[in-house]
Amino acid sequence: MRSPLGNPAWAALDGPHAPFAERKGQVLRYPPDVSPFHAVPDQPDAAVWQDLADLTGPATAVTVVGGVDLPLPDGWTVVAETPGVQMEGSALVERGAAEPGADPEVVRLTGADVPEMLDLVARTRPGPFLPRTSVLGTYLGIRRGGALVAMAGERMRPPGWTEVSAVCTDPAFRGHGLAGRLVQAVVTGIRSRGDQPLLHAAASNTDAIRLYEQLGFRLNRTVRFTTYRTPES
């Protein structure tokens, strides 16, 4: 049986995240205010392009995790293609706080915190985070002087796995280990319900990859995130 990590967005939307899934033919996607990610099956046929266009609408950006390995039809363009890495933490040894909530500075973020979360993401650019992304799982943060200065949370949930995402720290507070503490706290929560942690990072984000390796994550495979633009009509 193919690992759910081979096509994580599809495995999540066809599995634990099915309540969020919007479907058209061969295509699944998250609601546009939750995540930009679309997913296609492992072996789509050429009709997948029409399914993407019908689901998304004309002249609209469509981000497909893994891309579509079929010739691009007339009228479609590739807007961006981001090489990335997929890392998994099944062998990660938890350090520090052993129970969720044991780190006194780590707090659970709620809907009331979304404006601050969006502001932090805009300043640090960890990857896609939208007004309702936080509904996908638990998000944790650290405050200093009342202001949110670091956060991390959960995004895609392929069966048996949960993706650690939106790991970011205000530039003024980097170098203090906040991101590592938050990732550890998120991982503890993931494992408390029987899942294992995974994450994705842009291949160019070597600082983040180095941190994840220090925490115990290991490279599982390379991935790509391809953004297309649908035809004008």
Descriptive key words:
alpha+beta
Number of helices: 5
Can you summarize the main beta sheet? 11 strands, mixed
Query: What is the β-strand count?
Result: 11
Proportion in helices: 10-25%
Order of helices and strands: HEEEHEEEHEEEHEHE
Mean pLDDT: 94
Strand content range: 25-35%
Low-confidence stretches: none
Q: What structural category characterises the helix and strand content?
A: alpha+beta
Question: In one word, what is the shape?
Answer: globular
Order of strands across the biggest sheet? 1-2-3-4-11-5-10-9-8-7-6
Compute the separation of the termini in Å: 39 Å
Cα-atom Rg, whole angstroms? 18 Å
Please describe what this structure looks like:
With 233 residues, this protein is α+β, with helices and mostly antiparallel strands. 22% of the residues lie in helices and 30% in strands. It has five helices and eleven strands. Strands 1-2-3-4-11-5-10-9-8-7-6 form an eleven-stranded mixed beta sheet, with helices on both faces. Strand 9, helix 4 and strand 10 form a beta-alpha-beta unit. The protein starts with 7 loop residues before the first helix and ends with a strand.
